[in-house]
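Hi,

I'm pasting everything inline rather than attaching a file, because the server keeps stripping attachments. The sequence lines come first, and each chain or strand is labelled.
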Amino acid sequence: MKSRLWGAALAVTCLTMFAGTAQAGPTLDAVKGRGQLFCGVNAGLPGFSNPDSQGKWTGLDADTCRAVAAAVLGDANKIRFTPLSAQQRLTAVQTGEIDVLARNTTWTLTRDAQGLNFAPTTYYDGQGLMVPKSLGVTSAKQLDGATICVQMGTTTELNLSDWFRTRNISFKPVVIEALDEVNAAYFAGRCDVMTADISALAGTRATVAPKPDDHLILPEVLSKEPLGPVVRHGDDQWRDIVTWTIYALMEAEEKGVTAANVDAKLKDPDPGIQRLLGVQGDMGPLLGLDKQWAYRAIKAVGNYGEIFDRNVGKGSPLKLDRGLNGLWTNGGLMYAPPIR
Amino acid sequence: MQSFDGRAKADAAPRAHHLTLSINNPTVRAILWQVGLGLLVALAGWYLASNTMANLARLSIASGFGFLDREAGVQIGESLIATGPRDSYGNIFVVGLLNTLKVSGVGIVLATLLGILLGIARLSRNWLVARFAAFYVETIRNIPLLLQLFIWYALLTEGLPGPRQALEPLPGIFLSNRGLKLPAPADDPVWAWVAVLFALGVLVTLALSAWNRKRQLATGQRLPMAPIGAALILLPPLLAILLAGGGALDVPVLQGFNFKGGMTLSPEFAALLFGLTLYTAAFIGEIVRSGILAVPKGQTEAATALGLSRGTAMRLVILPQALRVIIPPTTSQFLNLTKNSSLAVAIGYPDFVAVANTAINQTGQAVEGVLSIMIVYLVISLALSGFMNWYNRRVALVER
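And the predicted assembly:
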């Protein structure tokens, strides 16, 4: 853990010291050249990126990377996943160690302005608080004097003190580097409360808690946490590719195109579907890809709704509602601009 | 004297005509080499620095130390000074630095004491004591420190009950997975009296031990000064506190989620302190053992011949001589302990590295953050080794 942190720190120091001052080459050429997409993910966050029993990365973030790999390289498995800690992740994108960061990263102005660009949000989250039911707490306002476990190097750390100080509630943070250790400290009773994004709390409760029913996620939402993939600032073409791959997945859900029926949909008369799947128009070539980019992405991982249900929704242990993450046609925030 | 002065003059005279500015002159050549090398190093440094700045600017990563004045907005879990989310990054860096110094300082003192005990125990004639010390050293120093920290942290958080079921070994002292809560001095006039009594006790003890030394020289008899001194210094203040009753102490009380009032020894601090102390003590123990064995056996025999007991001989004859061998490698162990304290990030103790990591993530300024960490550890280490070198010169063998 230690060595990884120092590795990242050293990497940024060395890379900024020795890297030539010339403009970084287009990422697309680099990815095609090596035939592999370098994708940064969370080392273990159920529902978003988590290795399964066979060591295969699963989750919403992992599938986002697969969609990009399928669109760009034609094969969803041509990926090297790099598990990154919260502190390492931004540096890894900035220095070009990875091509895409899909690691439940919150879109903020500071991050966007400092050498990073954000692709569309793939999960609208918010920060929440989890407590053991035995504590008898039903609202965050009752938490005066509580000890709160939080992971180091996250926006969570800031939101927490902002939220509590504006309400004049005192608390004591225990800030730990690795999520595993944060979980361990909370379940050992070192803290009264654990805070993280609500999806992460649900994941921890469903998969790590000895008895999931003993823990309650409080109703207060402390912050807005739009989570989405991140790419390096300065390569507009690559940013467009990642952005529109995600929009293509949303568009597919809106048009009812799924991994199972995508081949049949090639013959669909709807011009929207025909443009999406490359039957008509030159959408892919405009991005620097071929015509079948979106077809391959959908075929490989399914549309956005399928990805959601499989990883964090009804079909997963997390059982999260679509809520804000539903399509705009269903009152959610997922809205793909027209693909034309 | 006359001849000595004459020789000095004779030496100086021929050196004067060497000072020609010729490339054949070895002194001139040496200076040229030095200057050339110096320039090269400076050039390399300038290249790295300017290239770094250019690359940071190209990647639109902010640079410079301006962020130190900005409000950090984070709360630090434990601190020696008052702190809050309104503090600047500079302030929370100071909080982290003090936390590093706290755990390193206490750790160095405890590791030294335990290390000396271990070193002596390994040489004990008592088979059980010697074997136990050897077992301890070989086990502890061969397990990675990070693992030991995890074990201590897990033991302290999983092993102890929650605050509502806290153990109370003595009235007013609570042990739970939130840490050890102790009564703290409250705002009460009795503490002025305690200070006066303490100072008086120290003065009386000093006077008494001076008298005791004179008496020993005159009669050969001596009083056991250690227990008498301890009683004189500690008992009167304790009595004063007891007489003042409950008002003198701020006793922790269970209120809501946790204890309010009193002092806290947090599980993070305790786990880090235990880990660092026990780990480093194993190394110091071996150094002490080697130092003691480096003192010639004749010294022990001479001390025995003078009629000194084993303990007295160790204290007055062996250890002072062993110190010369012990101090240089022990200095390295002190430096190791200080640097190892940065493993705190793994178990949530807010040391300098932990605070700097948070700052790096919030500001995105990794170069400045890592540079700060490097400078802080360099300064601490240089100060510590400067002090130890001074002490080493003091105890070094003075050849007459």
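The longest helix of chain B spans residues 89-122.

If the labels don't parse on your end, tell me and I'll reformat.
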